[in-house]
Write a structure and sequence with these properties.
Elements (H helix, E strand, L loop, with lengths): L15 H9 L7 H11 L4 E11 L2 E10 L8 E6 L6 H13 L9 E5 L4 H6 L21 H11 L5 E9 L3 H14 L13 E5 L5 H11 L13 E2 L2 E2 L5 E4 L1 H4 L10 E7 L8 H20 L2
Parallel strand pairs: 3-4, 3-5, 5-10, 6-9
Antiparallel strand pairs: 1-2, 2-4, 6-10, 7-8
Length: 303
């Protein structure tokens, strides 16, 4: 258990006053336009780019984009890739863009691709888990979502005429989960915070309603080629959840409002890399995300 968060009163959920105090304490730390939008535009020769909405906040207007392969063949299944649902999880954003840049075109004879590389751009700029309203987009993928980031992404994907066979959502687990984000969550909700053991390495979160263990295993085997997989703790768990197999746990993504749970795709997973590990690097984390996408493709091409 950690000390009381610096905003709010122990045991009392935040009101709008505390949420505004939290918002005013956030600062811009990097540029979405320079690090993400600029790279998206540079990919225009290899994919089609669609702006699917705009997030208009006091900090500014943030356009959000989807990337799709050119010459879509509607007879082919579609793979959905999402990143930056939590804006601070950098390798998810960079991994999605790296896949488009280096790999996507070689698979377009078998699949269509829909890629939303950075769903939460304000979170990306402030290196934050929440949006400016102190709402977690990755607990908000449901009807009448309180997070505009989640609403826009769902609305765009759900109106596509696409047979989405798989959805991979790219995430990270970082030391700031325990030092900042879990304490903030407990304070916001008026609860007692309990930190979790942060796994050292890559792992997957499957969906309890459609776990598809062979699918998850194929992804883990691909990622193992470029970065290490997290071992379970002494309780055979990762982040307090029993492991289903090496490097894999399961959540009920739909009931929790997780991004991977909003589509009807039969094959879904959420990646988690650990960028704070002494045994990895920023580039290796990005490579691990790309390898996970390639694992999805390898599994789907096997049948």
């Amino acid at each position: 258990m950690s000390k009381q968060y610096h905003i709010g009163t122990a045991g009392a959920p935040w009101t709008e006053v505390e949420k505004q105090l939290w918002y005013k304490s956030q600062t811009i730390k990097r540029s979405y336009n320079e690090l993400v939008v600029k790279e998206i535009k540079e990919l225009s020769t290899s994919c089609d780019i669609e702006q699917y909405g705009s997030l208009d906040y006091l900090a500014g207007k943030y356009p959000v984009f989807a990337l799709k392969n050119k010459s879509v063949d509607t007879s082919l299944p579609t793979i959905l890739i999402t990143g930056g649902v939590h804006g601070y999880e950098t390798s998810g954003v960079m991994g999605a863009l790296a896949f488009v840049r280096h790999h996507m075109r070689q698979f377009t004879e078998s699949f269509n691709f829909v890629i939303l590389p950075c769903i939460s751009p304000w979170g990306f700029e402030t290196i934050n888990r929440w949006n400016p309203d102190a709402v977690d987009p990755n607990r908000s993928f449901y009807d009448n979502s309180p997070a505009l980031e989640s609403h826009l992404a769902m609305h765009y994907v759900n109106k596509l005429s696409a047979n989405i066979i798989a959805h991979i959502d790219l995430h990270e687990t970082t030391d700031t989960d325990n030092s900042e984000f879990r304490p903030a969550l407990a304070a916001r909700d008026g609860k007692v915070n309990h930190n979790w053991n942060i796994p050292d390495g890559f792992y997957l979160v499957g969906h309890t309603q459609k776990p598809e263990p062979a699918f998850q295993k194929c992804i883990i085997e691909q990622v193992q080629k470029v970065t290490h997989i997290a071992d379970a703790d002494e309780n055979s768990q990762l982040i307090g959840v029993d492991i289903e197999q090496f490097g894999v746990i399961n959540y009920d993504a739909t009931s929790l409002g997780l991004c991977m749970g909003f589509s009807q795709a039969p094959y879904v997973t959420t990646t988690e890399v650990y960028p704070d590990s002494k045994n990895t690097s920023e580039q290796e984390c990005t490579d691990g995300q790309v390898a996970a996408i390639l694992g999805v493709i390898q599994y789907l091409k096997s049948f």
